[in-house]
Structures are given as structure tokens and as C-alpha cells.
Amino acid sequence: MTTRYRQRASFSRPPERRAAAASAISPDIPGVVLFPPLLYAIAFVVGLLAEWAEPATIVTPSIALPTGLVLLALGGLLAAWGRRTMLRAGTNVNPASPAKALVVSGPFVFSRNPLYVARTLLYLGLAFAMNTPWPLVTLLPLLGIMHYGVIRREERYLDAKFGTAYRQYQQRVGRWL
After folding, report:
1. Using one digit for the tens of pLDDT, what is the confidence trace for 56-110?
2. What is the pLDDT of residue 14?
3. Is 2 among the domain residues?
4. Other CB atoms closer than 10 Å to residue 146's CB: what's the count?
5. Cβ of 38: how many Cβ atoms within 10 Å?
6. Is residue 170 a part of any domain in this protein?
7. DSSP for 114-160?
8. Which residue in 23, 8, 29 sits closest to 95, CA to CA?
């Protein structure tokens, strides 16, 4: 049986067997579609290209810049806190590397994905600071790709790797907030 066939056939199995089959086929990584910071960068650049083609503003500059700076500060602080928490737990921050521990402290008490919440705040902050609405338009498809191409894959991976402990964590803490 080829790897491609095993991957397709695995979707007719129950979730726990699907995760086990996926880990048997692939290395110890969640297999996200693309490195998440790169996804955010691509979406933002597409928004900037739209801004170049059709300039527009969100609000007056006196509101846009302070709003953007606050969002950037919040996103930066949350990102630093989440990264530091993961490193202290002894696990990898990069989703292309294996998870070594299930992190349930720090910002992970409030969100299962605080680094993606932080990146979204940074994205919004930059759009507001630049006072351009087009990245806000590209944010919606970006969040769809993040949900299906990154977060759901990470969840299947973490479920397969940490089992009951991860499922209990999922019940206690929301995906975003």
C-alpha cells in the first residue's frame, strides 16, 4: 500500500486511529501547510498590494496610529510571554519541530493558541498603524487557512502525542480565547 493511499484511507478511520496512522506515516511533527509567520506575511503583502492598487484608509490617522500601536504592543507582549513559556517547558516553538511537552501554563491557561492570537494582534496592529484596510480583508481567508491548515493539524498531532491529557486541556481552554 502506498503512502498516498494510506493517507487518504486514514480519513475513514476514527480520529484516534487517524492520528496514529498519520504519525506512523509522517515524522513527529504536525505537518502544517506552511510556516505560520510566513502565512501571515503573505496575507499582509497581498493586502499591501491591494492598497497599492486601490489606496484607502481605515479611520483618521489620529485614531489609526494609537490603535495600531496598542495592538502591536499587546501582540508583542503576548508573543514574548507565550514563547518564553514554551521554552521554559522545554518544548519547541516552531511547529516544524516535535512537541516535547504539553504546555498548559502562562498564556496557555487562556488560549490553546496564544502565539497565533499574538500574531493576529500584531497583524491588526500593523494594519491600523499603516491605516490600510486591505490587510483586514485578507485576514479572513488567512484565519481560515490557519484554522484548517495549521491549528486543526496541530490539534490532531497533539491529541495523538499526548492523548487524554490533551483532550482534557481542550475541554478546559478555548482554541482562541
Report:
1. 999 999 999 999 999 999 999 999 999 999 999 999 999 989 999 999 999 999 9
2. 55
3. no
4. 23
5. 9
6. no
7. HHHHHHHHHHHHHHHHHT-SHHHHHHHHHHHHIIIIIIHHHHHHHHH
8. 29
Only one residue has cell 484516534, namely 16
Burial level of 161, CB count in 10 A (0-12/13-18/19+)?
A: middle
- The residue behind cell 514574548 is 80
Would you tell me how many other CB atoms lie within 10 Å of the CB of residue 1? 6
d(CA 19, CA 16): 5
Domain residues for the domain of 68 are 34-163
Degrees to nearest 5, angle at CA 54 with 50 and 59: 95
**How many folded domains does the chain comprise?**
1
